Amino acid sequence: MSDVSLRQPFLNARLQGFGATIFAEMSALAVKTDSVNLGQGFPDKDGPSEVIEAATSAIQNGLGNQYPPGIGVPELRQAISDHQQRFYGLSYDPDSEILVTAGASEALAAAVLALCETGDEVVTFEPWYDIYGANIAMAGATKKVVTLRPPHYAFEESEFLAALSPKTRLILLNSPHNPTGKVFSREELEFIAKVAVERDLLVVTDEVYEHLVFEGEHIPIASFPGMRERTIAISSGGKTFAFTGWKVGWVCSSPELTSAVRIAKQFLTYVSGGPFQYAIAVGLALGDDYYKNLLSDMKEKRDFLSAGLRSAGFEIFESQGTYFVTADARSVGYSDGLELCWQLPEKVGVVAVPNVVFYDNQEEGQHLIRFTFCKSLDVLGEAVHRLQSLT
Ligand code: PMP
Ligand code: GLN
């Protein structure tokens, strides 16, 4: 199993303990055991044909085949700016307040590396998305967590306040939230925003699932009073257009913060994905129908898998957004989600992800597992059929 616990002789101290990501590991297990892979979140069908055509035509017409501008091609920066205005009424100047990155992943790494001093603290919610811990460690900063607990993955305001200290530099927020499927409510965001303003903290916000919200609404935290100038809003085209391999992401923030993140970013990849940047610009400008269909299609899959998991005996926690749903391993007779996830492929030929790997306080997540529903209904149906033989 995982090499996470092995000491790596050449790896620096900051990264000791980080092994292969759980997603890579579980996808490899799915291939090895010929299982239905509901572990790593990637769609099994490509995104819109207009966007594919825009990418191939960009390549054929020499658009972006050589280094694009460091901040991203103007067409994409304009499209991101228009998107923020269209969906959220937020205005960002495409030249000074938008930065294109190699996926949201690079944006997150560049933001944390650019903004944190060694010894700073970053407050985030657990379960956290795996790269946050590694990014914080690379920056020589420390992660402080606030636990989201089922069934609603709510958090205690007192725990949030207790996680803050004079060393807190930034809050790293992910909504819609992976792996829980939680969409932070207006009241929760208001509370976080108020604290950020009072304590003069920066907020890095990971909004990659912004268009996959089934219950409630996605409210960018930058839209709360006093927040625009302290928020580094990050998103990407991976989930919205079902091209997770293209890795086109972006940052929207104040000119000063965008410029700080750009300095770190230029020494990571410098630039990436030239032709894909043009294509994602076309995607962002697609009509409302595209966004509506994306959502209704994913909602149908959420409902289908959620009902299927229940029929297989799982207690599940409603997914309000993203393309993930979490379940309690104890409902099918396992006290340990990790053990269940290692046994599922052998026993029934299905792969899921153990959420415990996303917790600092492991006892909080030991019994939780995550399934993705960004697969065709046939594939989900097959997974459900197999899972029904578990108990
Ligand atoms: N944040 C979250 C919460 C994610 O689930 C992912 C996964 N794909 C990313 C960031 C990374 O996004 P990208 O693929 O655009 O780098
Ligand atoms: N975001 C995807 C997930 O949560 C995985 C991306 C990756 O493998 N790094 O499943």
The side-by-side strand order for the widest beta sheet comes to: 2-8-7-6-5-3-4
CATH architectural type of the largest domain: 3-Layer(aba) Sandwich
Instruction: Give the class from helix and strand content and strand pairing.
Output: alpha/beta
CATH class call of the largest domain? Alpha Beta
List the helices and strands and how they pair.
Layout: H1 22-33, E1 36-37, H2 49-60, H3 74-88, E2 98-102, H4 103-115, E3 121-126, H5 130-138, E4 142-147, H6 157-163, E5 168-174, H7 186-199, E6 202-206, E7 231-236, H8 237-240, E8 248-252, H9 255-266, H10 274-284, H11 288-311, E9 315-317, E10 324-328, H12 337-348, E11 350-351, E12 353-354, H13 362-365, E13 368-372, H14 377-387
Parallel strand pairs: 1-11, 3-4, 3-5, 5-6, 6-7
Antiparallel strand pairs: 2-8, 7-8, 9-10, 10-13, 12-13
Helix pairs in contact: 2-10, 3-10, 4-5, 4-9, 11-14
The structure holds 4'-deoxy-4'-aminopyridoxal-5'-phosphate and glutamine (GLN).
Q: What does it look like?
A:
With 391 residues, the chain is of the alpha/beta class. It has two domains: 13-47 and 289-387, Alpha-Beta Complex (Aspartate Aminotransferase, domain 1); 49-284, Aspartate Aminotransferase, domain 2. 41% of the residues lie in helices and 15% in strands. It has 14 helices and 13 strands. The chain has helices at residues 22-33, 49-60, 74-88, 103-115, 130-138, 157-163, 186-199, 237-240, 255-266, 274-284, 288-311, 337-348, 362-365, 377-387; strands at residues 36-37, 98-102, 121-126, 142-147, 168-174, 202-206, 231-236, 248-252, 315-317, 324-328, 350-351, 353-354, 368-372. A seven-stranded mixed β-sheet has the order 2-8-7-6-5-3-4, sandwiched between helices. Strand 3 (121-126), helix 5 and strand 4 form a beta-alpha-beta unit. Helix 2 (49-60) runs antiparallel to helix 10, helix 3 (74-88) packs parallel to helix 10 and helix 4 (103-115) packs parallel to helix 5. The longest helix has 24 residues, at 288-311. It is globular. The mean pLDDT is 96. The structure holds 4'-deoxy-4'-aminopyridoxal-5'-phosphate and glutamine. Residues 103-105, 129, 174, 178, 206, 208, 236, 238, 244, 247, 249 line the site of 4'-deoxy-4'-aminopyridoxal-5'-phosphate (PMP). Glutamine binds at residues 21, 23, 40-41, 178.
